């Protein structure tokens, strides 16, 4: 099992180089990081998986970006939007992860989208950044959103990924800390451990993502 | 006052956490305020009273904390949400939990290797930075003359690669 942080933002988006992030990830016990716009490789025993993050409100622009920039070995993460957009994304070839679900409206990811995610093997990303950095009502909203997501997952078993969305080495968390943070919204530690290894499974061609129970 | 018998005393758990950046050492009072804020904002006053978070001592790169027995999981979750002490960005990574302080003190990392905390000046991205080198490859950069600026975190390999690319550029120019 390869514990992976499903999204980090090294330089220029963040203030740490991809090598330093890999070094810190290794020290924390992670075996891989998915780094935005990085080159694939390995550093200090930590695998660096390049990520393509797409933030487009139009589904045609998303498919255009995947065609243009999506390469083998790159994890494609797309920002979620309203319900219809998300359903189209989940049916689209080449999309690996639906991210920023906590920033969307509650109805943006419903039971139909959950079933689609399960059928197409697209993972839903749980962003731990707002849980760590937000306070008060903002954090409560995010927790409520994730509780709802976990309720859907218990029925439809779609894959999950866990990400810190770290822009600095100070934002990175160990697999144990990530699992503990997930208990805040009732995701069992075993399922959180499984979610940490999902990016590796998503990149293996020809093998469907399996939820091992 | 007569001390309570051991069976009636409150049971405690001690946590050893790594702190980054290790220097300068945070003020224990400020750190206690930050820990209390992190626990209270996440679990509320009632749970914080049950957890009873305490900062016992701070050292270079580590901190010893205490909480009630049975609440260590909640306490570790709250520690994961701590992002700053005062104005300074820090992160705490719990390393070990123990029932006695003595056992935990044995796990405190040994004295710093010679290279750790070495200061210097480096050229990076065309600017002059004051660099703090740590054991291994880690280098923290702070732009010279700019106060309150967020540091840049790189490795020795990043600097060497940059120097190498500059050499190649110069060679190419000479070649033309």
What layout of secondary structure does this protein have?
The complex is a heterodimer of chains A (213) and B (176).
Chain A: E1 4-8, H1 18-28, E2 32-36, E3 41-43, E4 46-54, H2 59-69, E5 75-79, H3 83-91, E6 97-99, H4 111-120, E7 123-127, H5 129-133, H6 137-156, E8 160-163, H7 175-182, H8 189-196, H9 198-203
Parallel strand pairs in A: 1-2, 2-4, 4-5, 5-6, 6-7, 7-8
Antiparallel strand pairs in A: 3-4
Helix pairs in contact in A: 3-4, 7-8
Chain B: E1 12-20, H1 28-51, E2 54-59, E3 62-68, H2 72-80, E4 84-85, E5 88-89, E6 91-98, H3 101-105, E7 118-124, E8 127-133, E9 138-143, E10 152-155, H4 156-175
Antiparallel strand pairs in B: 1-3, 1-6, 2-3, 4-5, 7-8, 8-9, 9-10
Helix pairs in contact in B: 1-2
Description:
The complex is a heterodimer of chains A (213) and B (176). Helices cover 41% and strands 18% of the residues of chain A. In chain A, helix 7 (175-182) crosses helix 8 (189-196). Chain A is an alpha/beta fold and 213 residues long. The mean pLDDT of chain A is 93. Chain A contains nine helices and eight strands. Chain A has a single domain (4-203), classed as TIM Barrel. In chain A, strands 1, 2, 3, 4, 5, 6, 7 and 8 form an eight-stranded mixed sheet that branches. With 176 residues, chain B is α+β, with helices and mostly antiparallel strands. Chain B has two domains: 10-105, Ribonuclease P, Pop5 subunit (Alpha-Beta Plaits), CATH 3.30.70; 118-175, no CATH class. Chain B has four helices and ten strands; from the N terminus they run βαββαβββαββββα. In chain B, the strands form three sheets. Chain B has a four-stranded antiparallel sheet with strand order 2-3-1-6. In chain B, strands 7-8-9-10 form a four-stranded antiparallel sheet, covered by helices on one side. In chain B, strands 4-5 form a two-stranded antiparallel ribbon. In chain B, a hairpin with a 4-residue loop joins strand 8 and strand 9 (138-143). In chain B, helix 1 (28-51) crosses helix 2. Chain B is elongated and about 70 Å long. Classes of the chains: A alpha/beta (213), B alpha+beta (176). The A-B interface holds A 11, 15-17, 19-21, 23-24, 28, 43-44, 131-133, 135-136, 139, 168-174, 177, 180-181, 183-184 and B 20, 41-42, 73, 76-77, 80-81, 83, 89-91, 93-94, 136-138, 150-155, 157-158.
